[in-house]
Amino acid sequence: MLFRGMDRAALDAAYNNTAAVGIPKRDQYVGGWSARSDALRKTREAKADLRYGSGPRQRLDFFPCGQTGAPTLAYIHGGYWQMNDKEPYTFFGEALLPAGFNLALIEYTLAPEARLDQIVAEVRSAVTWVIEHAAEHGGDARRVFVAGHSAGGHLTATAMSDPRLAGGIAISGIYDLEPVRLNYLNDKLRLDKEEAARNSPLLHLPPHSAPLVVAVGLGELPELIRQSEEYWAAWERKGLPGQYLPLPEHDHFSILEELARPSGKLFVALNDLARRA
Asked: 126 in a domain, yes or no?
């Protein structure tokens, strides 16, 4: 047995979100997000492909809400560090922009081209860029928040080490990379034991932090739920501020709707963070 009584086949299944939800349902979600994002990009002007580094994917899109000194959400896409782009997540602007939030969509180099050390460093650089340039784009540098889903949830947790952030929302994230090192995802990630430990947020809690919301759908794979439960427990034991937000009605993909509509629980949590900031 490789990890917690699971062999390689069991670990592969334990982290295969697409298989758990089903390809047709997953494709329906993704297709809907892309269509909504394309529609929003036709009605909202973006400052597109702003460079936070020299690499081809070291870029971000900034959607200003039109209000001076507005809070900004920097969103980090998922895809198990191996796939996806920033553009299909523009649909979050449906709720965020009218509510007075700027939206920054971060892209980063994917595995296998980049090792996880590099990906984490790139995302931290992108968050730094958003904070340092927020005022130039109508934002308030003191009210920059970070959020991400799946691999983006992991990267959100790593970004929370920046003390200038006003808060974060980690959605369905991976916080202990040891089981990832032992399953099919590592074919492209190529993690060794040291790199996995070095980039596991569970092992590197910050001494101080802005509030972090740790969210997960209770219809997700048990390993994803365990990851969030254990990370939140460690965060709370450390005395760090935040909230654990389990959402009973959601799977790994449907949970994103809770950030994309004004009545969504993740959107409400973000508003609460902004008010406290």
From this structure: yes
Please compute, for residue 154, the number of CA atoms within 13 A of its CA located in the half-sphere on the CB side: 24
Residue 225: in which H helix or E strand, if any? Answer: helix 222-237
Q: Which of 132, 197, 119 is nearest to 162 (CA)?
A: 132
Put the strands of the sheet holding 167-171 in their side by side order: 47-51, 59-63, 102-106, 70-76, 139-149, 167-171, 212-217, 242-247
Number of domains in the chain: 1
In contact, 149 and 254? CB cutoff 8 Å: no
Alpha carbon distance 107, 57 (integer Å): 6
222 assigned to some structural domain: yes
pLDDT tens column, 107-154? 999 999 999 999 999 999 999 999 999 999 999 999 999 999 999 999
Q: Is the pLDDT of residue 5 over 90?
A: yes
Whole-model pTM over 0.85? yes
CATH of the domain at 172: 3.40.50.1820
